[in-house]
User: What shape does this take?
Amino acid sequence: MVDVGIIGAGQTKYGNHLLSMKGMWAEAARNAFNSVDKDFQPSQVDESYIGSVAFGGSQLGNTAALLTEHSGMKGKPVRRVENACASSGFALRDAWMAIKSGQAEVVIAGGIEKMNDLTPERKRFWLGVSGDTEWERLAGLTFPGTYALMARRYFHEFDSTHDDLVHISVKNHLHGFDNEHAHIRKQVTFDKAKNGFMVADPLTLYDCCPTSDGASCVILAADHVVKQFTDDPVWIKASAAASDYLALHDRPSITQLLATQLAGKKAYEMAGVTADKVDIAEVHDCFTIAELFATEDLGFVERGLGGLFARESRGMKNSGEVCINPSGGLKSKGHPLGATGTGQTVEIFKQLRNEVEKNRQVRDAELALSHNVGGSGATCAVHLYGRSRQ
Amino acid sequence: MVDVGIIGAGQTKYGNHLLSMKGMWAEAARNAFNSVDKDFQPSQVDESYIGSVAFGGSQLGNTAALLTEHSGMKGKPVRRVENACASSGFALRDAWMAIKSGQAEVVIAGGIEKMNDLTPERKRFWLGVSGDTEWERLAGLTFPGTYALMARRYFHEFDSTHDDLVHISVKNHLHGFDNEHAHIRKQVTFDKAKNGFMVADPLTLYDCCPTSDGASCVILAADHVVKQFTDDPVWIKASAAASDYLALHDRPSITQLLATQLAGKKAYEMAGVTADKVDIAEVHDCFTIAELFATEDLGFVERGLGGLFARESRGMKNSGEVCINPSGGLKSKGHPLGATGTGQTVEIFKQLRNEVEKNRQVRDAELALSHNVGGSGATCAVHLYGRSRQ
Assistant: This one.
């Protein structure tokens, strides 16, 4: 079976962009192309997968072809993948399978979103539709409201309070502060985050990620051509994905994400590793409570002890344990829906190659994980990455 | 390399449905499940790919997970694929690659669209966004207008008139008349079609496909498990796809589709066959002129002679030549955007297994082709199918 290496990765800054969709994609793609160590031509790309949710508020169709038509990949097959906020996590998975299938040698996986051209109402709409529509959105539940329900229930079931979430927010803002691609580069104090503007009780502004514009792009290659492009690839050691019911009331428990657990378990099995071997994890912290769940669901800490893990800031970089969201995560780096999944991969590619800003570099990292969630857990993709091929 | 067989296929009737999106998907999936000859459980599905463009006018997100959450495939990875009207042609390609990759043994490819809940303005919008937006749609060009421009130019360059298109309309309405899944089951006379209500000169109502609701679902399996499910599979002998510029003015010629030519050529090479060996072709006749282009671009007739081919009704079933659109095509069977690609595969699965209504059965067909186009040719997927594995 073919192994899949990452030979290049790039992104735009996340934030409020003046660039068009096409301009953002061009910037991310160009950054990815330029990151390839040896000679690379976009015409060498065999196939592309681009994740996007709202696509400029749905003002455009045939969107993948539109983005790539002037990217030097003329004629090549391309499609959009949509799985709510897990769109580009699945784009990455499908790109990985395209290479494994033997049908393609060089494949692009990427993602894009433009949220800040939309009115606040339309932004809320595009976030809300990723959850359940019939039982939740149309009944008035907002997306922060969904995660607020989950947080409240978690505090009820386990030894945890909102203070634990505040620690997550403080950590991610600290991690993102030096990230030149991050949307919100502000360090926040515990008190400020604890007493932030209330969005959906118990979640304050500092528990919620921003809505960002941005694009990200990753170039994958089959093992037998990797050497043409770089002597320093990052290998994808596992790709796994899962789904779950959209509406919270259909799930036996709302203090864990079954899709994360399933995808995580499959990924560890595929790579032949255990959670304690992971050095870096980019997890889907659309809300701080989502990061807490991820630390448990991915096996970094026992169920029910995620609050303690957060309280002790055990996800902090160079703390000796797994570094959670060295990029700043969705909270600080930002969350351009469809771009987020492969944006996590961009961070991991650079971290594992020791190419991030000095202050942010996680030392001696060998094994990394990305965790990309759609909606409140209806879809999830988990990938494992390493410096060694096997 | 793993070969991929189709073990089941089903669809809803195309038309104006009272069913919800979820209900339509359930019906198509159930029909596909029930079509499997031996015991089949939806829990055996490893992965799903579902094509959709407008998804109910974009009122829903996380759409693939939403459709499948009550289909007996709980927990399994699923994603939406969007490539305008070629969405499920690409879903089929990605499902095929998933099996070829060795990561999945049983995979669903399907598609769905609900157009008739939308106002006429919104319908027009969702068709228009599949073409170019900046230079065409926002300048006032409608989707029929785009193809009208292409038709006019074709008549200018070659020996052809609107009468040739009328022959295509008459043929497809004849083919679709006995198709119980078809949207418009009406035979039309040459005179009626020729003098139809003008939509975009020279295209009349009888040159334009209807906007339909509908869903389609195809079940693929790896060669080593096919026998568990059926002794009578249809094999996918080739899958190929390509892209092109969205806007007509960017293309060197607007009387041919480069994406079709590229994808067709690759597909024939992969299967080791030539165009003259194809017995059945389900081609993307969103407008009659699009079928004319397809007959040339896919090599059924020389460039410039598509008008003659149509005039002589050489695509008619059991005429001794390739049967073009035995289902009735988009013109008569209908066009529920995202469902169309895998809907073509449903027809081919049944034709090659001698399972369609008696009057519609194409005799002694061995090799079939499906051709699914996005927009006015920005994306295209071509598949070849046969009774024999090699």
